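Lecture notes, part 5. Sequence design as translation. It can be helpful to think of inverse folding as translation between two languages: the language of shapes and the language of residues. The source text, in structure tokens, appears below.
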């Protein structure tokens, strides 16, 4: 699990260097992978949260948070797809109107 987290740290960094993600996204993912690493290395560190949330095992907490992150990413992807679709429609409309004006 720690090797996976380190790989994801590196992958996030490469994505930032390639300008695929912004600094805020890099910070978000580093915090997420850091928290994952801490939970994996020190499962007892989550006991305060586990007791307050009435969750029995650390792995249950990791699974719940993982599902929540997946939904956040899916929603963000959905919004980006809609934004790109609108941009493409506007571009196609602009090109069609420009071509229609030509004799």
């Amino acid at each position: 699990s720690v090797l996976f987290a380190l790989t994801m740290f590196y992958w996030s960094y490469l994505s930032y260097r390639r300008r695929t993600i912004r600094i805020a996204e890099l910070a978000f993912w580093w915090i997420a992978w850091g928290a994952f690493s801490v939970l994996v290395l020190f499962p007892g560190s989550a006991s305060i949260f586990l007791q307050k949330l009435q969750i029995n095992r650390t792995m249950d907490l990791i699974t719940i948070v993982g599902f929540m992150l997946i939904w956040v990413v899916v929603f963000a992807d959905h919004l980006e797809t809609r934004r790109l679709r609108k941009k493409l429609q506007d571009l196609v409309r602009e090109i069609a109107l420009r071509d229609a004006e030509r004799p």
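The translated text above is only one of many valid answers, since several sequences can fold into similar shapes. The mean pLDDT is 91.
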